[in-house]
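Sanity check

After download, print the first record. It should look like this:
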Amino acid sequence: MGDAILHHKAAVMKRKTSYSNLEQVKNIGIVWDASKIEDLTYLSKFCQKMNENKTEVKVMGYFPGNTLPNQYTAIRYFSIIKNEELNFFYHPVSSESISFITKRFDVLIDLNFKKLSPLQYISSLSNASLKVGLFEPSVKNNPYDLLMEIKSPVNLEDYLNQVIYYLGMINSGTVQKVG
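Expected structure tokens:
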């Protein structure tokens, strides 16, 4: 039922897709499966690198456990969705998640490799100008504008490097969504 609701919301959503080049990116939103605490190191390095390039990064993570790891607290660019912030259909309902969805990020990078429902909801309904996600042939109705094909298991650091590499190669006025 939750997937059907999400599919309907995504189908009626109006979003203008655009991207010109990496130098013009002012903000990046990242949707992240926070269940792998070891990925925080790579994610933090990526955020620091982007901040050095004067690009603001905001990370929205989902942690399925009951107790949030200490490493996830007091990071200014990082918000966590907890189970009590989900509705009956596993859709996020917190004000932070709604704000993240409606923000017009220049680029949204999806790091939800397990396709967790709360993060799929955010990526699908995000108002970002360009959405980047992992290509999976079995997934229908992909919400992404740029698909990355990487062999499993996906290494987060390699994936982020590949995303930046390909975003750096694009240099056009506007990317139009195909399909």
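If your output differs, re-run the checksum step. Summary of this record's structure: Residues 175-179 have pLDDT under 50 and may be disordered.
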